[in-house]
Amino acid sequence: MKYAVNLDIIQRAAERIAPWVNRTPVLTCSTLDHLADRRLFFKCENFQKVGAFKFRGACNAVMSLSDGEARRGVVTHSSGNHAQALALAARLRGIDCHIVMPSTSKAVKKRAVEGYGGRVHLCEPTLQARESTAARVVAETGATFIHPYDDPRVIAGQGTAALELLEQAPGLDGVVVPVGGGGLTSGVTLAARGLDDRIRVFAAEPAGADDAARSKAAGAFVPQTGPDTLCDGLLTSLGELTWPVVRDLVEDVITVPDGPVVAAMRLVWERMKILIEPSSAVTLAVILDERFISLEGLANVGVVFSGGNVDLDDLPWNRNE
Predict the structure, then answer these.
(1) CB 234 within 8 A of CB 183
(2) Among residues 79, 186, 237, 279, which one is catalytic?
């Protein structure tokens, strides 16, 4: 099947964004290797600009625009990392960036977007309001809409993380990546499988937002409804472009409750001495789950830590104290 993105497109994206993105490190930890009974290689996108992998896709989308398109600016609807990533990418190119955010967004997120130069447009906290407000801004400004994940340019940008990972840790048997909307998952999968089709890719998902797992099991797209998880970066449904990749090329989508996610997050903070968010920790939580450990032939596994944006005043292990 032909997908919206392929290895060649991802490699060209890597060349395009190289002047701006961080080449994030791959770290190891003997303690976690012992617990997982295999060697783990952590691709640390928490060290990416804006603290998350989202900058790769946003940067590729912005830098792909023609000069005429760029002059009219870009717009998206997001209250998360994509908003900050797009605002920063637009600032680097010297163009306008409009971010539609729900009125319920935390003030710290609004300030972060504005700090990167984004123009915030508040709307009611519904998907319909976000989409209609973004459409109005596009109509008024002529700006290009950049979807947070269901955009070939964004998917290709996210896939560059896998190109780096496989250079930094050659000989991987598998890769585990968190899945929400699927931009990172599909980009990493297409890059990794494009370089070596023997690499097994697994998606990790919180049990409280398991649309990807249910879709995979059913063989048909199942939309997200009523997500309930502290992994706030993994609340969205798969997209039209990302679902086919998950359906066809991801070996399995493994879910895990929030409890093990919090335990994995704390383990990384304590043993690796790095700060990751719950949406990142879901990958390690899945690996430490006995259902994953039972898989044979996975001696060397790449693990994508997607970001490290955490509210330090609301750490999950303090909520029940």
Answers:
(1) no
(2) 79
Q: Which has more pLDDT, 80 or 39? A: 39
116, 120, 124, 130 alpha-carbon torsion, rounded to 10°: -80
CATH number, domain containing residue 19: 3.40.50.1100
Q: Specify the higher pLDDT residue, 20 or 318.
A: 20
Residue 79 appears among annotated catalytic residues: yes
CA angle 259, 265, 266 (to 5 degrees): 95
Are residues 75 and 40 part of one domain?
Answer: no
Residue 54: active-site member: yes
Looking at the fold, whether 110 and 88 belong to one and the same domain comes out as yes
Residue 188 sits in the same domain as residue 314: yes
Q: Exactly one of 43, 54, 110, 216 is catalytic; which is it? A: 54
Are 267 and 176 found together in one domain? yes
User: In this structure, are 122 and 189 located in the same domain?
Assistant: no
Report in angstroms the alpha-carbon separations of 208 from 2, 259, 274. Answer: 31, 11, 25
Instruction: Examine the domain organization and report whether 277 and 190 are in the same domain.
Output: yes
Span 206-233, mean pLDDT? 92
Q: Give me the chain's average pLDDT, please.
A: 93
- Report pLDDT digits (tens) over 304-317: 999 998 877 778 87
Q: What global pTM score does this model have?
A: 0.94
Q: What's the rounded Cα separation, in Å, for the pair 319 and 321?
A: 6
Which amino acid does the sequence have at 189? T
Within a domain: 309: yes
**The domain containing residue 67 runs over which residues?**
55-145
